[in-house]
């Protein structure tokens, strides 16, 4: 997550513009709410109590942004300096706890908010990398980790295998990386808002296509004789 001042800006790089910073803040707040709600829904499904649901929602919400801040040298993480982020995370978790039992399709609802959070954090992570002058691989790396970090922490705490390790039929980290790449490729060629919307749209589209079996990653199938016990 980013605010109006980056810490430890490398020599030779200009500080990000106020327009970029404002965009990052908006993306962060919306993404935090979406990820917090997705984490809370997992907690409700796992029958966590209110405290557990709020903790899982908040960790899901700030996990990816914390990784991004660490990689871009923003220390301490912005959510510790601006409590707005934590309040939004708590709000998302409470909403998930209050209305989760009424949602009949947890998987579908979780996927919607998880995909929204993934797209927004991948884009904001890529913008943070661009602001510090990272190259294409650096921008992709920061964007992908920003997008998947919160979800991985959520799955680990909920005792589930992180989706990025096995769900080849539902693109997750790959979708985040693709969105970050689009941000890099369009930077300076189209208005910032347009590049952000296109990149977020790419992430959402890839997730949608993969969930319907139209796009997937290859998986190495071993003969049964080569599989372990």
Automatic annotation (TrEMBL):
Keywords: Cell membrane, Membrane, Transmembrane, Transmembrane helix. The keyword Membrane applies. The chain crosses the membrane at residues 22-43, 50-68, 84-100, 112-132, 138-157, 169-187, 193-210. One of its GO terms (cellular component) is plasma membrane. It is found in: Cell membrane. The keyword Transmembrane applies. Residues 26-99, 112-187 form the Glycine transporter domain. InterPro entries: Gly_transporter (IPR005115). It is a multi-pass membrane protein. It comes from the Bacteria. Belongs to the UPF0126 family. This is Putative membrane protein YeiH. It comes from Deinococcus yavapaiensis KR-236.
